[in-house]
Here is the input.
Amino acid sequence: MLQSVLEDLRLPVFQGTINELKRLMGLPLIPVKHAKQVEIERRYQQDQLLLRFRVKRGDCGEEGTLQVLRGAALKFYQQQKIADLSREALMTAQQLHKRLYEIRQYSDRHTNTHLSPQQLEVLPAIEQILRLVAKEMDTLQNG
Here is the structure.
């Protein structure tokens, strides 16, 4: 694990470095009010890299941290990212199921309160999204 800290760097040069990193990462050049973190993947000499840039307000302006992940560290990060995204997708699917169930239950309980045409317009859109989700699931399962 290689670490480096820039010391004794004049403030304008340091802020210029922060601004160039912000530009690279697609962040606005105005000083941040709250901490922001951005990640991008790039290739460098046949190696895949993940650049993680964190910028926050400091006592003398902005402070920045740049992490470069490659090799085993990048592979571990990617596995964690897939696990996190999978958990989020499961939670979202469960929430969708719950909401649709609640709509049906409410509609069944209030037989005189049927879904209006505007509310029914949502159902084809949901079906379309579910077809897209099914395609993505098939792609994930079958490579």
